[in-house]
Specification:
Growth Hormone, Chain: A, single chain, two-stranded antiparallel sheet
Length: 280
């Protein structure tokens, strides 16, 4: 659903930006208000909560358990999450500036390219989940990291004249240049990573710690959302406002994530019981 929201924000926002740069902000404000109203009207919470005597571990206690675990699988996955979200958030935050200052496109074109990535992310969300079940989540995530790394490096090393060649024009998506095709392939890689990461984290723990491990996932991803744009901004600043450095710095963090995933030994989907075709 986050991917669907990204499509609406990027593709719809790009069209609104062409009409008036203030309109995307009005769209964002309206959607937030709509979300609040829907939560108020549709979510029904129990008036009386069950009094469970089972002690719920705190976030800090769970983090200490993760760090002290000799297996280190959970710690490695959380660090991988930190690294790949640093890379992704850096690219997402600066992509319109990359499109404007490096590719010499408009801001709305840059936003539209992000929408093309989001579309393939949504389309490949379910297949990546099935792929994670059949070949393993660690392998699927690793494949996604490799795809993302190659796509980012392709955007750095490919000449601007080649990246901006228009390949086709599609309904809703608009013009699809070479860089748009690369972004679509990156969307497939991002689906392989993102769809399988949270299930991998929560399947490493017990039911009692399910909420806290989910909290750890969002702790590390949120830290990355803070660190990624700041790290990338410093890199751009120290390289003389060279926005193409975004596509060289991000793969370094993807490679770190790939290294972390190599040592993960837990978190795979539980095998499904086979159903017998013989009913008699």
């Amino acid at each position: 659903m986050g991917g669907v929201g990204s499509i609406i924000a990027f593709l719809g926002g790009a069209k609104l930006y062409d009409m008036n740069p203030a309109y995307p902000f009005w769209l964002g404000s309206g959607l937030v208000l709509l979300a609040a109203v829907l939560v108020f009207l549709l979510i029904r919470e129990p008036k009386v909560y069950e009094d469970s005597k089972e002690e719920q571990p705190s976030l800090i206690a769970s983090l200490k358990t993760v760090i002290s675990d000799p297996d280190r699988s959970a710690l490695r996955v959380l660090l991988a999450i930190l690294f790949w979200f640093v890379a992704y958030n850096a690219v997402e935050a600066f992509f319109t500036l990359y499109a404007k200052n490096h590719l010499l496109l408009t801001e709305s074109d840059g936003t539209r390219l992000l929408g093309q990535l989001s579309l393939l992310f949504v389309l490949f969300a379910l297949p990546s989940g099935y792929l994670g079940r059949y070949i393993g989540r660690r392998v699927t995530i690793s494949i996604g990291i490799v795809i993302m790394t190659l796509c980012l490096l392709a955007m750095y090393f490919t000449p601007i004249a080649t990246l901006t060649v228009v390949l086709t024009k599609l309904p809703v998506l608009g013009q699809v240049p070479v860089v748009g095709l690369i972004m679509m392939i990156a969307g497939i890689g991002w689906a392989c990573i993102n769809i399988n990461s949270l299930p991998m984290v929560v399947d490493m723990t017990t039911t009692a710690r399910l909420g806290t491990y989910t909290g750890l996932y969002y702790l590390f991803s949120t830290l990355a959302a803070i660190a990624g744009p700041n790290i990338n901004g410093l890199i751009i600043q120290f390289t003389g406002n060279n926005y193409s450095m975004t596509m060289l710095a991000a793969p370094l963090f993807m490679i770190l994530a790939f290294i972390m995933m190599r040592g993960v030994r837990r978190g795979e989907a539980a095998p499904q019981p086979e159903t017998s075709g013989n009913l008699g």
